[in-house]
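Changelog-linked ticket: S-adenosylmethionine example.
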Amino acid sequence: MTEPTDFEIFLVTHPGLESTLRDELVEKRFSAPKIEAGGVAIRGDWPDVWRANLEIRGASKVLARISQFRVVHLSQLDKLSRRFDWASILRETVPVRVQATCKGSKIYHAKAAAQRIETAIHEMLGAPIDPDAELTIRARIDDNICTLSIDTSGELLHKRGHKSAVAKAPMRENLAALFLRQMGYDGTQTVLDPMCGSGTFVIEAAEIAAGLAPGRSRDFAFELLANFDDKAWQTLSAPREPTETAVRFYGSDRNAAAIDMSQTNAQRAGIDSLAQFTRQQVKDLGPPEGSPGIVIINPPYGARIGSKKQLHEVYSAIGQTLMSRFVGWRVGIITTGNSLARVTGLPFRKPGPVIDHGGISIRLFSTGPLGDGTTQRTGHRRRGRRRSAG
Ligand SMILES: C[S@@+](CC[C@H](N)C(=O)[O-])C[C@H]1O[C@@H](n2cnc3c(N)ncnc32)[C@H](O)[C@@H]1O
């Protein structure tokens, strides 16, 4: 077995967001995106792997599928693992580790499977095996078919590399980017987050408007591979001047530390001239000048905020403020369930898919342009009386 020149590349994302990630891959001209559970498969070569890591916002990992074979015994796995031309991909001096999973297969002992492949790599190539290695080979044995992939990203891709300060409950950048996409954000609308925490939505939106690649400030595991072409990578990833944009981005939060954090993060991301952060309670919020844009909010869910009553007060303040002062704006709220969303009284459409975010199920509730209080709302029933526009 030798290294293929055109192979399958799998971009991992949160289950439920696969089709939004596929839309991003189509927009960024990747070849033949195909939805699978937990991600999207494309076809390409190593430069496509590098570009996917650099440019795709919605993925958490990029896996290069380097080999696939049928296997029913550990001894057969040992033999077939030795047929792969590891020297074409791995360096003998770079430590590596193997992670295996087994499902519906005669080989059911994942640790033993990983050890067989590690031994094959070590004996064939001499590469050190280290459980803490930056470079990971994944072996998925599913229905007696073993797929070997290289984790080409290393650290999860939501770590953009320019965030120094993180709030208590930050939204992962790749999730934030996909939620913005689900809101129809394309870099031309104003985006405002009145509970901005560390500034994730505002910074992602501003970077998209400025045409900045999400991976421009970080390293990737593929840089450790034998086939890595540093010169080609330097050309592909050369720093680009931000695109001129007249659009502005706004974040506010009641917490002064959150505002400091957002400002620092925006500076490090190089988009501080496009973003404005203000310490403010949501109830005191007003729309910035200019055309209506998108309000996106990831309010507290409950685990960290005292009582249910306090939580309802926060959601009710969001609804009252937006309904009365944000005519023409579209609103997206990411929260845990219908009951909290309903407290806002906002005219939500059918909610988005349920997403697992660090063990908590969340989903996007979104509206069309908010009316002036005279139009009929659609979607979920609203409790209480409609407020008139302010
Ligand atoms: C879940 S965190 C948002 C995290 C943010 N999306 C991020 O990625 O860092 C919720 C934020 O809402 C803020 N907050 C809570 N109640 C508020 C209120 N009444 N007005 C303004 N901000 C509030 C908190 O200070 C916190 O930063």
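Closing comment: Example verified and attached. The chain has two domains: 7-151, 173-213+241-366. The longest strand covers residues 61-70.
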